[in-house]
Structures are given as structure tokens and as C-alpha cells.
Task: inverse folding
């Protein structure tokens, strides 16, 4: 069984460009979570989505960041007009339903570098 | 929000030694997971353990939810155990229903095992 798939593994962007990070959850999972890990730090929650719905975006910066999980296809985390401070590892996780009684399964992350 | 504290922050061992990592959390939780982040940055799911004790090979974990802590035991450590160990919790619904779904991570314990 395939795990959570994230692509690309590494992404390099220049300041001002857009970054698109993709996440395909595990088969049968309808809940997706995005986390960001700054260098030398732990992971911080960004956003929690179900198919076509944003459930909790309390950890997402108000500007330049957006996330979606369409009915068909992967979840997308989009960062517009990237700045140096956006350099980080971005992890996606999934669970089959509200994960109060299920673990979250994590992908290998996307390492975003801003030149 | 919920506070998650891990100790020790750093740990250096000789191969074959045993160790105990601790995770304290400030409120009741629905979910607790232990992860190992290897030197390549991948997050490996070790345990889903909101309460009780589990064992997997040389690793075991115990969560005492009423006293708000969890312990990760590593026995006969190997160099491949090196990396960062994270504890992550999901706030219990009774403690704050708007926080469900998201994991709050501790700052991690950096483990180095020397041959």
C-alpha cells in the first residue's frame, strides 16, 4: 500500500515566484493536514482539510498561503510571492477520518529553498 | 494552546546503551504519537499511544494520560537510532473542541549514538 506521497521532494524558487506543493493521501484517507518545519525546529500545524473543505486554517499565515483539497486529485499547498523566510520543510499527513482515534500518517516532505 | 515539552533536548550514547525520552503535556489529549526523524529528514511513525504501553522490537512507549506524560524507551541502541525524536499530541475535545485534528509537536530530543 502506498503511503502519503508528496512531490516534489525538493523545490527551489527565487524570491517573488510561486511554489506549489502536492500531497496525495493514503488510499482511503479523506483528511489531510499540512505542517511546516523551519530549520532546527519542530513541526508546526498549518491547515486541516477534508475533501473540498477547509476545517481549520489557524496555523496558516494570512497572506500569500492557501491550501485546497479538491474532490479529485491531490491536496495543494500554494505559496505566492515567496520570501526567504518561507524556506522550510513542508510535511503532509493524512488520516481516514477525524483522527481522534486514528494516527496521522506522514509523507517524506517537500524541502523548499528560496534563493 | 497546549504545551508539549520534551527532555532531554540532547542525548549522546554509546552503541548498546539504553535510554528513556520523556514528553510532558499540559492538558488532556485525544492522541499522542512518537516519531523518529532520520538524518534524511523523513518522519517515521513509531507509536500511536494515547494511553497504555506498547512495544515494537527494541522500542517501547508508555503514556500515563492522567499524569500527562509519555515515555519512549530505546534499548540496546544502534547507530541507526540517531536522529530527532518527536512527541506530538492532539488536544482532547473536552479541553478545547476547536483544536481537534491538529497535532502539536514538542521541540524534539536529538539522539546521537556512537559506535
Result:
Amino acid at each position: 500500500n502506498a503511503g502519503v506521497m508528496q512531490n516534489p521532494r525538493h523545490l527551489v524558487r527565487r524570491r517573488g515566484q510561486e511554489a506549489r506543493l502536492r500531497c496525495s493521501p493514503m488510499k482511503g484517507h479523506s483528511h489531510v493536514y499540512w505542517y511546516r518545519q523551519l530549520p532546527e525546529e519542530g513541526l508546526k500545524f498549518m491547515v486541516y482539510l477534508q475533501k473540498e473543505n477547509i476545517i481549520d486554517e489557524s496555523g496558516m499565515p494570512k497572506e500569500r498561503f492557501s491550501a485546497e483539497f479538491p474532490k479529485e486529485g491531490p491536496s495543494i499547498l500554494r505559496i505566492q510571492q515567496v520570501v526567504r523566510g518561507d524556506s522550510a520543510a513542508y510535511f503532509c499527513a493524512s488520516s481516514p477520518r477525524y483522527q481522534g482515534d486514528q494516527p496521522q500518517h506522514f509523507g517524506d516532505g517537500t524541502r523548499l529553498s528560496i534563493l | 494552546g497546549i504545551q508539549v515539552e520534551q527532555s532531554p533536548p540532547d542525548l549522546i550514547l554509546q552503541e548498546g546503551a539504553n535510554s528513556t525520552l520523556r514528553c510532558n503535556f499540559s492538558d488532556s489529549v485525544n492522541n499522542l504519537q512518537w516519531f523518529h526523524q532520520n538524518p534524511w529528514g523523513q518522519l517515521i511513525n513509531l507509536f500511536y499511544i494515547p494511553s497504555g504501553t506498547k512495544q515494537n522490537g527494541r522500542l517501547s512507549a508508555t503514556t500515563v494520560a492522567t499524569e500527562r506524560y509519555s515515555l519512549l524507551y530505546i534499548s540496546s541502541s544502534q547507530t541507526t537510532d540517531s536522529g530527532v525524536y518527536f512527541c506530538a499530541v492532539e488536544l482532547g475535545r473536552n479541553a478545547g473542541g476547536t483544536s481537534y485534528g491538529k497535532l502539536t509537536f514538542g521541540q524534539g530530543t536529538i539522539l546521537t549514538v556512537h559506535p
Remarks:
- The radius of gyration of chain A is 13 Å.
- Chain A is about 0% helix and 50% strand.
- The interface with chain B takes residues 31, 33, 35, 41-45, 48, 55-56, 58-59, 89, 91, 93, 98-106, 108-109, 111 of chain A (CB under 8 Å).
